From TrEMBL:
Gene3D superfamilies: Aspartate Aminotransferase, domain 1 (3.90.1150.10), Type I PLP-dependent aspartate aminotransferase-like (Major domain) (3.40.640.10). This is Aminotransferase class V-fold PLP-dependent enzyme. PANTHER family: CYSTEINE DESULFURASE, PYRIDOXAL PHOSPHATE (PLP)-DEPENDENT ASPARTATE AMINOTRANSFERASE SUPERFAMILY. It comes from Marinomonas primoryensis. One of its GO terms (molecular function) is transaminase activity. SUPFAM superfamilies: PLP-dependent transferases. Pfam families: Aminotran_5.
Amino acid sequence: MAPLLDLAFVRSQFPAFKEPSLSGQAFFDNAGGSYACKAVIDHLDQYYRETKLQPYHLHPAAQKAGAQMDLAYKRLASYLNVDTSEVHLGPSTSQNTYVLAQAFGKILKEGDEVIVTNQDHEANIGVWRALSSRGVVIKEWRVDSKTGSLNINDLEQLFTKRTKLLAFTHCSNVVAEINPVAEICARARAANVMTLVDGVSFAGHGLPDIDALGADVYLFSLYKAYGTHLGVMVIRNAIADKLGNQAHYFNEAYRQKWFVPAGPDHAQVAASRGVLDYFDALHDYHFDEGGSALEKAQRVRVLFHDAEQVLLSKLLKYIDQHPKLTLLGPTDPSKRAATVAIIPKGQTPQELAQKLVDQGIICGAGHFYAVRLLEAMGVDSNTGVVRLSFVHYTQPEEIDQLIQALEMALK
């Protein structure tokens, strides 16, 4: 049986919870970016003080800087269960996806098919749709208009011999339903279709075992997983070989430069290993047994899941019973992440969000770049939804604070 998450220990690892200006403010905008853990902030500070120069050059400080970057790639790879050469760190997931689309555009032929969903963030839809100008056929895997869910059986009608790529999300940033990634990837592989998975809305709830998922490409934003403002892009080597070097021609020998043509942000790359420092510390605090990075990642993921599910159940029950609130996505907490999108009756999402903010609830309202999903579900994307998102460091008292604030705002 997994231990209970020690919130006092967890919150001691995040400087934001000691910040006077944030005192009394309950953070429910984690889907937009989580708080950074202390280890990341410390590494970033150290890099700027000690090694803010060109890494890998001859000077000892440059060598130290390069070693810190190398360690970040290595440790991320071990937690994600992939080879170090398959981890690429770019400026953001949106930018990384754009680079990938340009790379795929060079190998796709006229008449080849790419399948996208209308459930995703626009970053994983628009760049692929743009390939239609090159003669690529874009097909849409559509959600159920009532639930916002994707039906995996629809893929049978979408796959043809010309289908080359399926781009979909691990977890929607609005309806929050967790898709069966391993099963989807297995079906795609059987049809000779490559898969690209947007894991941005999932990774903050526990880093995935990418090898077990079977995704050919997996992307997420590190700044939504307690780290620096970088996009993590895992490209399996077989796919990278097909796509080829997208950077300067003379960087052909350096695989980790292939898909980051602007070059890496040295300090942020080096500091990103702080996320794994935090996960290691969290694991060792809660578990007596050791193990590989993959085993630690699995245990930490269970810790996060169990802590979030208790709070999510309480919030969903309140929303489901309230006559002035409509929930988007599953009511069953086991089927979704702790990202909750609601539509109020009698006021706009913006009006409700402002009332919550006035009561110390940090949240947002809008379409959150999921315009196609909202339109498919009959929701006005101009006003969108109120989104309340939390992670493992959220306290039960903050859920109570949120519910009380909703009560006041909905009167």
